[in-house]
Design brief:
This protein is α/β, with parallel strands linked by helices. 47% of the residues lie in helices and 21% in strands. It has a 6-stranded mixed sheet, with helices on both faces. The relative contact order is 0.10.
Amino acid sequence: MRGENKQRVLVVDDERVNRTVLSAVLKDENQVILAKNGEQALERLAIDAEIDLILLDVLMPDMDGYEVLRRIKANDATKDIPVIFITALNTMGDEEHGLNLGACDYIGKPFSPAIVKARVSNLLRFVRQRKLLETLAGRDGLTEIPNRRAFDTALEQEIGRSQRSGQPVSLAMLDIDYFKQFNDHYGHAQGDEVLKAVARVLTGALRRPADMVARYGGEEFVFILPDTDVRGGLEVAEAARQVIESMAIPHAASAIGPHVSVSIGGVTAIGDVSHAPGLLRRADEQLYKAKQKGRNRVHWDGVIAAE
């Protein structure tokens, strides 16, 4: 396989012999990046946005594989990269713990090169297909709503239409309150279920075919409401917030209440609409104010919707 088409695999193991063997097994079909400890692995991930899969040793000095995985999953830029644990720990409890933290698979030591190659190949095939489908469909793979790419395109179109028509366009950003703490407490599988539930609520809150909701990244969602003034935007956002709160999804790690809640920041522009990054920045500022004022609320261009 030509180098430019190879998928990128990060191998993290403190034992040189294991890194050497895994690299030899995988290098013909993949581009292999090596890290000898957790800190080095996180540094590699910080500078390389194209890594497709991580093979991660559990038992490492200073920072073990569990902590490395927690940090990977806590970072929006890396949380969706699949991780395979390679470890001598082989009890059901160890495997369950790793899977709850977000690992995709376990390979026991001493490992079989043929098994490693087969499992890596199968998972990378899935990664390639997922990325292709998301790009072609403009859909987020987890929630099945539009992804950020589709949102960016739609926002530019709606801004242009608003400039031509002089009609308002409203934009809102939503963030799940204390979502990192939720994942740490309940596990990433449960966190994914919350993301899907929030996506369903937001989709149900849309009133017209031109309205749009998308997953912007991590626990952040955005929605566009064309031809919608401040009052209309507030009504949609507040209705969504209330429905999410009424689902009463337990969140014992939240600092503001016993259930999952969301904060929403919105902005309405009329006539001379600013370009997309400017509108997004204004919505993000309102989201920040909603969080400052206690979370679980809507803040819309200086107007606060009551809890």
